[in-house]
Amino acid sequence: MTVNFGVVLVTAASEAEAENIAKSLVEHKLAACVSLSPIRSIYTWQGEIHSESEWQLVIKTDMAKFEALKTKVQELHSYEVPEIIAIPIIAGSEAYLSWIGQSLDLQSGV
């Protein structure tokens, strides 16, 4: 079995929303871990420039779970168009990557 780990970035409007999304992803074994940080985003939306406080979710997962993860984020998210960006992990500590696999209930081959 080939495992393709990645990090998915999602921003949320509030700490409560970020925590709700994070807990749901971990509970459904779509993420091994989700780190949350307050950030400031400057972006264009509907022709206007916005500057907002948001929460960044850094989601560690197996990319085979990406479609289900994306669906769950869209189900729980308040934004019309939430950020959902996947970045592959090309290298990492074997012990940490193994832990991700165990947390996601992946079979051997991690």
Give the radius of gyration.
15 Å
Mean pLDDT: 94
Strands in their spatial order, largest beta sheet: 2-3-1-4
Number of strands: 4
Poorly predicted parts: none
Q: What profile does the largest beta sheet have? A: 4 strands, antiparallel
Number of helices: 3
Oligomer: single chain
Shape: elongated
Instruction: Give me the secondary-structure category.
Output: alpha+beta
Span of the ends, CA to CA:
8 Å
**Residue fraction in strands:** 35-45%
Give a concise summary.
The chain is 31% helix and 36% strand.
Please give a structural write-up.
Helix content is 31%, strand content 36%. By secondary structure, the protein is an alpha+beta fold. Strands 2-3-1-4 form a four-stranded antiparallel beta sheet. Helix 1 (15-27) runs antiparallel to helix 2. The N and C termini lie close together (8 Å).
List the keywords:
4 strands, four-stranded antiparallel beta sheet, 110 residues, 31% helix
Give the SSE map.
Elements: E1 5-12, H1 15-27, E2 33-45, E3 48-62, H2 66-76, E4 85-88, H3 94-103
Antiparallel strand pairs: 1-3, 1-4, 2-3
Helix pairs in contact: 1-2
